Structure formats: structure tokens, C-alpha cells
Amino acid sequence: MKKFLIEVPHGSDKHACDQAIQVFLQTGSHFLTHAEWGCRDGEHKAWIIVEVESKDDARFILPPLFRSTAKITELTTFTLNDILEPQQFHQE
Q1: Mind listing the pLDDT tens digit for each residue in 32-74?
Q2: Nearest Cα residue to 70 out of 15, 1, 23, 14
Q3: What's residue 62's pLDDT?
Q4: Domain ranges (residues) in the chain
């Protein structure tokens, strides 16, 4: 399985924060109820790390209200051996 970071932005006003938190918690989904939030530091986003097969699978974990605005990034752990391999993800 692949690992993905899901970043879910929401509005910065109290109502938007409350709504996002409430929607996440009411789903009952383990992923969503354990999201990390940046609101108290002025970063109005939630972050979740999941292990699923694809970006689409990661997106479908989210409530429909947040799917279109979420940023999903595949995470990779590198070793020193990876540095020696040909550059397959960069141009140059």
C-alpha cells in the first residue's frame, strides 16, 4: 500500500472551523476522528496520513463537502541507496 498525506483546508472564521471539525467527528471514521488540526495556530487545515492503494482511495475517505479542495500527496521514505539511483522523478 501507498502512504498519503491528505490536507483539507477550510474557512478561517469560527463557523467554518466548527463545521469542519463537526463533520469530521460525526463521520465516525477512524481516519477523520484522528485528524490533526492547525486552527489554533492560524492554519485552517486538517491533516490526515493514510495507507491506501491510490489517491482516489484517499480522496474518498473524506466527506463529499471537502473532496474537491483537499490536497493529496503521496509520501515516500528514502534511503541513502535511493540517492544513488537515476533521477526518475526530476527533470535535469
Answers
A1: 999 999 999 999 999 999 999 999 999 999 999 999 999 999 9
A2: 23
A3: 96
A4: 2-84
* Whole-number pLDDT of residue 68: 97
Contact 18, 55 (CB under 8 A): no
Report the top-level CATH class of 2-84. alpha beta
Instruction: List, in sequence order, every residue forming a beta bridge with 3; answer none if it has no partner.
Output: 51, 75
Instruction: Give me the count of residues in the chain.
Output: 92
Q: Which of 39, 60, 36, 37 is nearest to 49 (CA)?
A: 36
The CA-to-CA distance between both ends of the chain, in Å, stands at 29
Give the pTM.
0.86
Q: Which three cell numbers stand for residue 12?
A: 478561517
Rounded-to-integer distance, Cα 11 and Cα 50, Å: 23
Cβ 36 vs Cβ 46: under 8 Å: yes
